[in-house]
Amino acid sequence: MNRRPPVAVAAVLSAALVLSACGGGGDAGGGDAGAAPAAPAAEAGGPLDLAGAGCPATVVMQQDWQPEAEHGAMYALVGSDYTVDADAKAVKGSLVAQGVDTGVDIEVRPGGPNVGFQPVPALMYIDEAITLGAVNTEDAIAGAAEQPTVAVVSQMTVSPQILMWDPASHPGLSTIKDIAAKGVPVVTSGDIIPALLQSQGIIRPEQIDTSYEGTPARFVSDPTILQQGFATAESYIYENEISQWGRPIGQQNLADYGYSIYPEPLAVRADKLEELRPCLEKLVPIMQQSQIDYLAAPGPTNTLIVELVDAYQTGWTYSEGVAEFSARTQVEGGFVKNDPASGVFGQFDPARMQTIVDTFGPILQQQGAIQANPDPTELYTNDFIDPNIKMGS
């Protein structure tokens, strides 16, 4: 379901290049942990004490893609005593929130090729150790019957998915609709986006091309196309890191065309909601604040993210420059902001959830992914949200 494909650097354009996933060396030491002072322990019984709140000894968080700045709130909680398991593709350390040790550990696992591209709900039902998973709303709809999940906090408010184009190939045009009207191929990695655009009469069936594998080769060789990307990555990468391109791209947010999903909200298995309730009462506000704190000072977490990409050796590349651009764009582009309906950060809007189900349910039914629309109220809860946590406050 439109999980992000890998964006590789320009070197992938060379036919001679072979991406080699060098064998990871098991556990590796963390970020100079011996030199870093240990975080003070959280006050017993206080809001940051997770050990006494029924949380697992290790809070396992499953992402849907490779380490990147869009996942900063998770990685920002990894303490300086972390270890990296390059074979298992995981980082583990003390869960440190707002400068204090919460008394439990955190383990962050990447998704995508690291897990055979399995949807996060499927992973959560295979491995009961996963506490929270990043589940895009359309994936939650698709899994509602067999692998139901309940989103407990939104980390990004608006999807940064875009379609991009070459301005020189489409002079004077500035929207997806106008460029698509020329009949050009619309190249994506999945079928949700083209189905959404086709349902609105913006593209025709013959324009749909779901062969995008994440490299820049197709776009560079045929710049007339519309191609999937992320506002938080591609414009920087193409202009600064792909020497065969090296100039700006044109782009428009797919949110402008009804791609209204909550991107990567954190969810629990529906059958574990009540068991985890005491933990979530403290953990969800920590996740709200972690995203805000990360975006205010992303540097240290970005360094960890880049370190993990290098350690995992999957062929995915990610630079400090992209990470910095992403963190800045998440805020400046309005992708991470307070819930417009309530003004609270991380809260879900019931009316928006209904719209998401009404929009994507029929598409998924037509594609044979579901038999009927789920009840949108069963896909999320605001029970654990701290209404006092807001960006800019």
From TrEMBL:
Residues 1-21 form the signal peptide. This is ABC transporter substrate-binding protein. The lineage of its organism: Bacteria, Bacillati, Actinomycetota, Actinomycetes, Pseudonocardiales. Residues 48-72 form the UPF0033 domain. It comes from the Bacteria. Keywords: Signal.
